[in-house]
Design goal:
CATH superfamily: Winged helix-like DNA-binding domain superfamily/Winged helix DNA-binding domain
CATH class: Mainly Alpha
Number of strands: 4
Number of domains: 1
CATH architecture: Orthogonal Bundle
Order of helices and strands: HEHHEHEEHH
Radius of gyration: 14 Å
Length: 114
DNA sequence: GTCTTGACTAAGC
DNA sequence: GGCTTAGCCAAGA
């Protein structure tokens, strides 16, 4: 692979609007990586501390966080999401409400639907 | 080179 | 609804 792919991943993640979330698989597809979802996870894990990339908006399939509930990372990610208005259903994010639909978001739901 | 690891996913139970 | 299993693919040792 090339650093280009990594940059594309970061750009896709950065384009996720506040209050929305995307799964690793979705980000991978958007970035043109196919099913290399784990690669996305790897990019996230290696992000520098001061990065502008909103890694907390990236979730596992089904809206689960990639961390075990109760861990520091879990709480940090959940806190960031809740701060943006993302609601949790138990230990998962409600993808029906907050799942990122990319460009379809506006087309299907409309700006004022929310 | 091969082997292990991992911030994953889909399918099955 | 949740847990387990098998498959996936790139990075690091």
């Amino acid at each position: 692979m090339s650093g280009d792919e990594e940059e594309r991943v970061r750009r896709v993640v950065s384009s996720i609007p506040p209050g929305k979330v995307a799964t690793y698989g979705q980000v991978a597809r958007e970035a043109g990586l196919g099913r290399r979802a784990r690669f996305v996870g790897r990019v996230m894990a290696r992000l520098p501390a001061g990065s502008d990339v909103p890694w907390h908006r990236v979730l596992c399939a089904g809206g689960r966080l990639a961390f075990e509930p109760g861990t520091e990372s879990y709480r940090r990610q959940r806190a960031c999401l809740e701060q943006e208005g993302v609601g949790f259903a138990g230990s998962r994010v409600d993808l029906e409400r907050h799942g990122w639909r990319a460009t379809l978001d506006e087309l299907l739901w409309g700006p004022q639907h929310n």
